[in-house]
């Protein structure tokens, strides 16, 4: 075939029916778990004012990774790179009338101008789930439990993925103890967030540029290796205890290396990773107690996470957990024997649809029966109805089971019973 | 409340849970009808190369109404204003391996830079459904029947909405008969498409600018008033006959005024309108036998339509057909009696979720019971579980029906039976 005239844009995807079936399965699992915990679905615009992100999302996301367009009125618009600022804006807008706690989730497209690679695309989908209006660590625990239940529901087990939890305020205390000045803490968090992706030497250099001494760098590394100080945080203690009551403690662990990259997190942060650390975070989130206020609303505490579809797909492949999903909804193909039988076939197809059977009619009255049967077999349609002169005379149809090849002549009313 | 810092972008929407529930209901109906006829779901990128639309969508859509952005590599990208060019591109890409006929549908966001008004937004959703690989008028008839079944499924009747069908090639013949030169026909179609929105005088002037004489304008008006010449088209005759067999003829009628605005239509065109013509088209489509070829594939015939969510919502409101949809998934709220009972409540909530009951737990262990009950009633949660000292001692829970106010103390295992 000659080279195609139009290629899809780099970092975007075409979802052919088999891809879409996987996506629908995945989104279905996200919806199911969200609803099981009583979360309501919402959605916001894909186009948002650029300044909404400038407010708090962090410089990297806004300046380097956001798709920006200028509308014909000269306003700068962003293709939303993440959902939380939209959520905060929507909550701020109707704060007075929304019963608290607000338990909301959303699934939709996000856009980031990054170099496409394994697990990372420019146009991707995320599930966001949040609880607003509660400062209790039990709310964080619930959100983390939702994440665990989701991972279980897609077939992943705690030997394959772990949710690593940390508390930014605990880390701040630790950094104070090694005398990192308050003004440098955000910068140090940024460095901790990138540590895994950098050579040690390079990372040390960065910390020294921030202003840390060699001793402080050494102490910081000591803190990051320690897995044992979570009980110094009352919040973490309550969270791990609640998660144990929720029956998901095998999925969670304390990890001081997790601080997350977004600037708006104020306390608990967490992310799910494959245990081999082969992929980016499967999901990540945390507590953001100031964001609603920052976008112009009252102060409402919030906690939640986002899970991207691209990494999840990769992780499922890695652990051979990708489900086999049928992507043809059709239960039966009604064939057209010859042109003269088209009307009769049409009638049968209509009757079957009225009995709630997903039915395709072969649309070309002049096609050969062979070609029609081949079509059914290519599309893996389980049953075929044949309606020729004999059947027409007896008022019956021949129903062929495509898997076994067996066929029998029955009345139209019986078709539903056999197929369903 | 003070003015909010961030407003949503003009022409976009925030979908709060009640709005999202309507959207999910509507998309659910679209999916249901599509699958009933054996169509497979697909989806494409939201970002496409701008030139994909330049190919055939028509100047107005591309030059005036498309949101364009330049990526950091200098390429011009469009936020897709419609789906058919993406569909054609995807089919062209995998033509050899796709069994024909291809029956596909998709539901997703589209973007058009138009002046927002009743029934028209800049960011909206469309359902696209198409059949490719068949030139038979019976394929057009099926697509129109899908449209009728959809309208029925959302509660509209043939006294409220009609699908107006026409054949562009029949219109070409008619225009030839009044000696409109071939080269002017597309321009005349454009004028016919806009006729309804213009003053008669203004419209006459436009036609004269195109080059029509006063007599030709008069004759054209005669053609457009005539509802009786559809039998001159063999295609239309076969379509109306098939639609009658499909049991939907009350929804369809011939209308020479319908030519549709997109340049790629080659034959049958149709649109659904409210009978009062108060709104724009509810859905519109037609046959495009050259589009796959234009985007670089082989010649594959296609026919289909798109239905936008904004007009549908308006039409349902007009005819008082908007359904009342519950938008809180929660079946039961488990309250927390006092802090000491939190763990017990958590256990009950977890048990209920394991029995597939959508369960919310009040997340603040320190909240008053009154406040929790008020929350349940505001959110219209049907049942509340109360678990205090008496219940804990007897190993039971009190289940309160929020609609009747009645409550009884039962064992946890019985809760599911009462609620479901």
Describe the model.
Two copies of one chain form a homodimer. With 420 residues, chain A is α+β, with helices and mostly antiparallel strands. Chain A has helices spanning 17-36, 51-54, 59-64, 84-93, 137-153, 168-177, 185-194, 200-210, 214-225, 234-245, 291-294, 309-318, 342-354, 369-378, 389-394, 412-419; strands spanning 40-41, 47-49, 68-70, 76-79, 102-111, 123-132, 161-167, 252-254, 268-274, 283-287, 302-308, 332-334, 359-361, 383-386, 396-401, 407-411. The first copy, chain A, has an eight-stranded mixed sheet. In chain A, strands 13-12-14-15-16 form a five-stranded mixed sheet. The first copy, chain A, has a three-stranded antiparallel sheet with strand order 2-4-3. In chain A, helix 5 crosses helix 10 (234-245). The longest helix of chain A is centred in the N-terminal third of the chain and has 20 residues, at 17-36. Chain A is elongated, with a radius of gyration of 28 Å. The first copy, chain A, starts with 16 loop residues before the first helix and ends with a helix. Chains A and B meet through helix 1, strand 1, strand 2, helix 4 and strand 5 of A and helix 1, strand 1, strand 2, helix 4 and strand 5 of B.
């Amino acid at each position: 075939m000659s080279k195609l005239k139009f290629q899809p844009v780099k970092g975007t995807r075409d979802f052919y029916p088999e891809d879409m079936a996987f996506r629908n399965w995945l989104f279905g699992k996200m919806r199911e778990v969200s609803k099981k915990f009583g979360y309501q679905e919402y959605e916001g615009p894909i186009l948002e004012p650029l300044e909404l992100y400038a407010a708090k999302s962090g410089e990297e996301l806004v300046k380097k990774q956001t798709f920006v367009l200028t509308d014909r009125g000269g306003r700068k618009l962003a293709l939303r790179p993440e959902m939380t600022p939209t959520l905060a804006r929507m909550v701020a807008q109707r704060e007075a009338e929304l019963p608290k706690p607000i338990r909301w989730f959303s699934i939709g497209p996000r856009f980031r101008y990054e170099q496409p690679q394994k697990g990372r695309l420019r146009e991707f989908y995320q599930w966001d789930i949040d609880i607003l209006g509660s400062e209790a660590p039990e709310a964080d625990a619930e959100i983390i439990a939702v994440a665990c239940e989701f991972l279980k529901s897609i077939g992943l087990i705690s030997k394959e993925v772990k949710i690593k939890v940390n508390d930014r305020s605990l880390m701040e205390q630790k950094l104070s103890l090694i005398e990192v000045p308050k003004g440098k803490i955000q910068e140090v968090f940024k460095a901790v967030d990138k540590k895994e992706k950098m050579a040690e030497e390079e990372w040390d250099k960065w910390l020294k540029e921030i202003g840390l001494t060699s001793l402080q760098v050494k102490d910081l590394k000591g803190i990051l290796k320690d897995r044992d100080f979570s009980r110094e945080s009352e919040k973490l203690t309550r969270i791990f205890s609640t998660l144990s009551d929720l029956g998901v403690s095998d999925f969670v662990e304390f990890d001081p290396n997790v601080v997350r990259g977004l600037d708006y997190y104020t306390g608990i942060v967490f992310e799910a990773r494959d245990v081999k650390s082969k992929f980016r975070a499967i999901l990540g989130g945390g507590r953001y107690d100031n964001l609603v206020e920052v976008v112009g609303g009252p102060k409402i505490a919030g906690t939640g996470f986002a899970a991207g579809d691209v990494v999840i797909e990769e992780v499922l492949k890695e652990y051979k957990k990708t489900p086999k999903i049928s992507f043809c909804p059709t239960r039966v193909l009604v064939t057209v024997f010859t042109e003269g039988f088209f009307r009769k076939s049409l009638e049968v197809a209509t009757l079957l649809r009225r009995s709630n059977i997903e039915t395709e009619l072969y649309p070309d009255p002049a096609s050969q029966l062979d070609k029609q049967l081949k079509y059914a077999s290519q599309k893996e349609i389980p049953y075929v109805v044949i309606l020729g002169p004999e059947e027409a005379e007896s008022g019956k149809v021949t129903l062929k089971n495509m898997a076994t090849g067996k066929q029998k002549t029955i009345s139209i009313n019986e078709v539903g019973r056999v197929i369903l």
